[in-house]
């Protein structure tokens, strides 16, 4: 069973001006002369964590990570309710990735993304197929209407996590239960902390539930981190991920030639494996793994094994 590589620290980092008054934080670690690999965090709005560096052999890879617009150490932060998210869309993030590639003088790179990161990886690869050497995708999220039905109505994941769903639902008055996403949006967008902070906490409480097959403690986040995460996540969910109407499966022919590995937990309650299966049906050339003893988390042993096995095989 493959395990994480040892912890490492960045050898370089900075803030890149990507226009629209935005700067994205980036860092590089591993081997400066190694094969370039880009890690895309989830959320959206989750930001990068030190553990994300450990999916790659540091002797073989030049590992690039960045905080997507308005989260993590990128500026301005969505933790400020006055910061507009109008210039934070999938197209903007894809353009940021390409600008970062040029800034770092990378010709082509492996792209690795889990959950929302898989959405962004597919979007980038379909926009710039000549810049991607391989794709490693975990917990595939296609942002289809059926995905939001699963997550935000009583007929989906709520049936498996009734207590967590009740806490999420009941943070909103019963009269607004017909559209919880919209009801949360009104509160999260309100400038009054007395309204937006409780809503953000409840929203993220549901977001963090059921991430792994076996329960784990949710991350400890301060109010600012909770608000920015909730604002950005809601912004994307309420806008269909800012994806083309035809969806990401329609663009598979543009990336069919790219070697790819798709990994999904059998008991993934956030991104159930049907989306990964549908992607594989559209793209049978991609290697496909369903991990029988895993949920959504990328660090669960079986999922971790397949992801690191993929980066190990692609390192040369």
TrEMBL record:
Instruction: Please name the GO terms that the record assigns under molecular function.
Output: aminopeptidase activity
Which locations, inside or outside the cell, does it occupy? Cytoplasm
Q: Which UniProt keywords apply?
A: Aminopeptidase, Cytoplasm, Hydrolase, Protease
Give the principal location in a single coarse category.
cytoplasm
Describe the location of the AB hydrolase-1 domain by residue ranges. 38-297
Origin superkingdom: Bacteria
Q: Which Pfam families match?
A: Abhydrolase_1
Q: Which reaction does it catalyse?
A: Release of N-terminal proline from a peptide
Q: What is its EC number?
A: 3.4.11.5
* Enzymatic class: hydrolase
The entry assigns this protein to a family as follows: Belongs to the peptidase S33 family.
Query: Any idea what this protein is called?
Result: Proline iminopeptidase
């Amino acid at each position: 069973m493959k395990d994480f590589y040892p912890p490492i620290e960045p050898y370089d980092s900075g803030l890149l001006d990507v226009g629209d008054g935005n700067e994205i934080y980036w860092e590089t670690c591993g081997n400066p002369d190694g094969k370039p690999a880009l890690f895309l965090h989830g959320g959206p709005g989750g930001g990068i964590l030190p553990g994300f560096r450990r999916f790659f052999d540091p002797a073989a890879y030049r590992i690039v990570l960045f905080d997507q617009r308005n989260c993590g150490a990128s500026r301005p932060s969505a933790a400020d309710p006055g910061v507009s998210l109008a210039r934070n869309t999938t197209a903007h993030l894809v353009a940021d990735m390409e600008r970062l590639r040029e800034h770092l003088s990378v010709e082509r790179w492996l792209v690795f993304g889990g959950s929302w990161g898989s959405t962004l990886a597919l979007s980038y690869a379909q926009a710039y197929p000549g810049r991607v050497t391989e794709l490693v995708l975990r917990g595939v999220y296609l942002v289809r209407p059926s995905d939001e039905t699963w997550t935000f109505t009583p007929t989906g994941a709520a049936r498996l996590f009734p207590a967590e769903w009740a806490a999420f639902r009941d943070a909103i008055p019963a009269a607004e239960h017909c559209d919880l996403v919209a009801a949360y949006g009104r509160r999260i967008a309100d400038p009054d902390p007395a309204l937006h902070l409780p809503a953000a906490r409840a929203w993220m409480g549901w977001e963090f539930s059921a991430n792994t097959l076996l329960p784990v403690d949710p991350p400890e986040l301060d109010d600012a981190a909770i608000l920015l995460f909730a604002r950005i996540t809601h912004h994307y969910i309420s806008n269909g991920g800012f994806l083309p109407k035809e969806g990401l499966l329609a663009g598979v022919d543009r990336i069919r030639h790219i070697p790819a590995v798709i990994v999904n937990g059998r008991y993934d309650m956030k991104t159930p494996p049907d989306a990964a299966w549908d992607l594989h049906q559209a793209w049978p050339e991609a290697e496909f793994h369903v991990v029988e003893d895993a949920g959504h988390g990328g660090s669960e042993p079986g999922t971790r094994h397949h992801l690191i096995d993929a980066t190990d095989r692609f390192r040369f």
